[in-house]
Design goal:
triacylglycerol lipase activity; PLPL; Acyl_Trfase/lysoPLipase; 7-stranded mixed β-sheet; alpha/beta; two-stranded antiparallel sheet; hydrolase
């Protein structure tokens, strides 16, 4: 059986609750192929790499806390979701993540332009894995304006075309939205009004509308904790309903039967097995692991003090409303100053690289571009021209002189024309 996690934005903590249940009571399900989109793809990757669930929960809550502290939430100019995700994933995922997830992790992406859905499962480096996960969670404006580049194409959130990728009929689907998904909240016993959006089933209910509204706007700490616990309970109900909580002997029998017949039936399950009955009874009283509960409780306590209570009062909310315009302007100014400082640092380091590689640049160029002194040259070029020269130097150093494609010749001619205009 394969497992698929849907994209859901800030509701991704639901996947943490589901993952904790699967790891505790049915870990053999996570040994097969895992697929997902957006937050679901990130959860699947972390599960394959065995990232501690409490660490996943802590980092997710840190991003939520950062977003809720901003004037416009995650849409504030000084809030960069992609940078937040990249920093944490780069730290948590192992250096050989590409070897671990290749052929096992299937990420749903939307190609730009064209809007074609692409399922990516092969990776050559850790950076490619990181860029793929960022692309799968990239929502224009919300995450930035330029989608990540993977190979020759740019990609954005896979939820636009396939929010819940399914590999075969034996795929277990997981979503925090009530609907026809295998593991999901059950708002009504009888599901009357259903819609299908990007391969993800949604039930038209008041609770589901609230969940959809919270995809890009993180809810209160208590709501997040409740959502995580609900994920655990929904997964546990699914496992018990389908007799998937077994002892080691029954698991071995089932896996052998599934491999032999290539079917998803319940063959291999022994209803009279005492160990299986004990495991099911034990699961009913245990609940979500304490390590995750501790992280959630700690996050709730940090938002339940007297000072936070004053900030949540109606009077303070009214004051914030009147100060909103000033806070937005200051937030934009802060984002501009920070981005400018980053650009200046990048250009400074780039100019240093040009000085170090200037001899290679002179030797590789087809004609002499530089007649003035080195100091005058370095001071005279603009930031754009500096980057252009640097990237051309890198291109010449990495190019194969014995063989060039037509595209390489066109690229070289275009760059040289721009360089000629500089001097």
């Amino acid at each position: 059986m394969n497992v698929s996690f849907s994209g859901c934005g800030f509701l991704g903590i639901y996947h943490t609750g589901v993952a904790s249940c699967l790891k505790t009571y049915a870990p053999y399900l996570l040994e097969n192929k895992l697929c997902g989109s957006s937050a679901g793809a990130i959860a699947a990757c972390c599960l394959i790499c065995d990232v501690p669930l409490e660490l996943m929960t802590s980092h997710m809550l840190d991003i939520v806390k950062e977003a809720r502290s901003k004037t416009l939430g995650p849409f504030s100019p000084s809030m960069n979701i992609s940078e937040q995700l990249y920093a944490r994933l780069n730290k948590d995922l192992p250096d050989d993540v590409h070897n671990r997830v290749s052929g096992k992790l299937f990420v749903s992406l939307t190609r730009v332009p064209g809007g074609k859905n692409v399922i990516k499962s092969e990776f050559s480096s850790k950076e490619e894995v990181l860029q793929t996960l960022l692309a799968s969670a990239f929502i224009p404006v919300f995450s930035g304006f330029i989608p990540p580049l993977i190979g020759k194409y740019r990609y954005m959130d896979g939820g636009f075309t396939d929010n819940l990728p399914i590999l075969d009929k034996n795929t277990i689907t997981i979503s925090p939205f009530s609907g026809l998904t295998d593991i999901c909240p059950r708002d009504n016993p009888i599901q009357k009004y259903l819609v299908n959006i990007s391969n993800n089933s949604f039930e038209v209910t008041k609770s589901n509308c609230f969940r959809v509204a919270r995809i890009m706007f993180p809810p209160e700490p208590e709501v997040l904790a409740k959502l995580c616990n609900q994920g655990f309970d929904d997964a546990l109900n699914f496992l018990q309903k389908n007799n998937l909580i077994n002892c080691k002997t029954c698991i071995t029998k089932r896996l052998f039967t599934l491999t032999k017949n290539n079917t998803g039936d319940m063959a291999g399950y022994d209803p009279s097995c005492t160990d299986c009955k004990w495991n099911n009874a034990f699961a009913k009283v245990q609940g979500i692991p304490y390590s995750i509960t501790y992280v959630l409780d700690k996050y709730i306590e940090s938002h339940s003090g007297i000072f936070n209570g004053i900030l949540k009062s109606k009077g303070m909310q009214l004051v914030k409303l009147f100060k909103l315009s000033c806070m937005v302007v200051s937030d934009i100014a802060y984002a501009f100053v920070m981005s400018k400082s980053i650009v200046d640092e990048t250009v400074t380091s780039t100019k240093i690289d040009i000085v170090e590689n200037l001899d290679d640049l002179k030797n590789n160029l087809w004609f002499d571009l530089i007649d003035d002194s080195l100091d005058k040259f370095i001071e005279g070029v603009t930031n754009h021209e500096t980057l252009l020269l640097y990237h051309y130097t890198e291109y010449l150093n990495n190019a194969n002189p014995s063989y060039k494609t037509l595209e390489q010749y066109k690229l070289e001619d275009n760059i040289i024309k721009n360089l000629t205009s500089i001097f």
